[in-house]
Amino acid sequence: MARSPASSDITFPPGFVWGAATASYQIEGAAHEDGRGPSIWDTFSHTPGAVVDGHTGDVACDHYHRYSDDVALMAEVGLQAYRFSVAWPRIQPDGSGPINPAGLDFYDRLVDELRGHDIEPVITLYHWDLPQALEDRGGWTDRDTAHRLAEYAEAVHARLGDRVDVWTTLNEPWCAAFLGYAAGVHAPGRTDPAAAFAAAHHLNLGHGLTVRALRAAGASTLGVTVNPALVLPTEPADAGHADAVRLVDGLRNRIFLDPMLRGEYSEDVLEHIERFTEPTFIHDGDAATIGAPIELLGVNYYRPTHVAAGAAGPASPAYPGTERVEFRPDAAPHTDMGWAIEPDGLRQLLEKLSRDYPGTPLYVTENGAAYPTGPDADSRVPDAERIRYLDAHLRAAHQALTNGVDLRGYFVWSLLDNFEWAEGYSKRFGLVYVDYRTQRRVLKDSALWYEQVVRRNGLPKLAT
């Protein structure tokens, strides 16, 4: 997937993959065109008060119509790979049944455009835009949705599998389950912890069923993308603080990683689920299905999570059962999202995953920062803060490599400024500035900097 590296003071391994990432609902627009059905994010974003300023993804970056121009920008930046998601409602408007040919035609054109520019397509099959018709039947709380994911994946692979080598099943299942079904701040906006645990299991099951289906169809490079938290105690690690760390680690990380990479749920996680619901949704044989071997684990990293044991109080809505856990505020400095900038957390997380789940190659599939930068009088977009952020995190990733982590690639989030979920268009993560009124694109200084990183396959040594 990568070109020959150039010499550099800090050099990544030959074949290291440099890319950028997006998601279908965040960039495509064309929400009502060519047979696309509604997704849970269409419904949620049109719900008053759900998204900042009432923004929706109806138009987004209009990538559906401007994809060829966007691929040309990718080539200008020198991307070797492009991670994007397929919109399930474009392929199956009702979430099951007949395939919509026009939906597949779009991705057919996009993949050909990428291949024509020597850019490797890396597909995410599910990045949160569940067909609304499936949510109406229970969504991820319904076991049948896992089977429908595999069916949809087979249809996409049948059309694109001759030109797409790398397939990932899910993006950030923790967000889909716990932000969507427990905290209610993401689609579908439900606030039921028991539903969130059922959703988490069915997302796991959907992953396993999809891996099995695509493997049978001939796919050879399969994986999943998670957003594991590096959970750190903010106080000396006595028993109480260690228990808080373990509880949050179980709810955020091990509830997905253990069944996917070890073929089993941890006993403490199962016991915690039983506080909220009898886990009858876990059937005999599910663990073996979920634990089907994969070739890569995608890691999305933005910041660690700092916790301590606390006095009894309300649980975090996204972490059911954390009444005695105190989530500490992020330390300064922050990005525009209010997220702390802690680059060494990426090194620590990659090393922890490598220790805890050896044998699975890792990719940083998302890493980036939001800053409110726009064009100056010369139509240049200076974003030195983003460059410093990316530079520091790449140095941390390189240190993990030096320390023995099998890290194969890095994808910036995001290629384009886009619809940032519940934040609407108020946060800008892109290497490329997007004027949402005119759809004009401008390469930011960070894009020009990243082009040099890709060209040299590394970074200059820091001056001492």
UniProtKB/TrEMBL annotation:
EC number(s) reported in the record: 3.2.1.21
GO CC annotation: cytosol
The record's GO molecular-function terms, alphabetically, read: beta-glucosidase activity
Protein origin, superkingdom: Bacteria
Q: Does the keyword Transferase apply?
A: no
Q: Name one GO biological process term.
A: cellulose catabolic process
State the active site: 172, 366
- One family from Pfam that matches here is Glyco_hydro_1
Catalysed reaction(s)? Hydrolysis of terminal, non-reducing beta-D-glucosyl residues with release of beta-D-glucose
* Gene3D superfamilies referenced in this protein's UniProt entry, alphabetically: Glycosidases
InterPro entries of this UniProt entry? GH (IPR017853), GH_1_N_CS (IPR033132), Glyco_hydro_1 (IPR001360), Glyco_hydro_1_AS (IPR018120), Glyco_hydro_1_beta-glucosidase (IPR017736)
Q: Which UniProt keywords apply?
A: Carbohydrate metabolism, Cellulose degradation, Glycosidase, Hydrolase, Polysaccharide degradation
Q: Where does substrate bind?
A: 26, 127, 171, 302, 413, 420-421
Q: Which family does it belong to?
A: Belongs to the glycosyl hydrolase 1 family.
Q: Which NCBIfam families match?
A: BGL
- Protein name, UniProt field: Beta-glucosidase
Name the species this protein comes from.
Cryptosporangium aurantiacum
Species classification: Bacteria, Bacillati, Actinomycetota, Actinomycetes, Cryptosporangiales
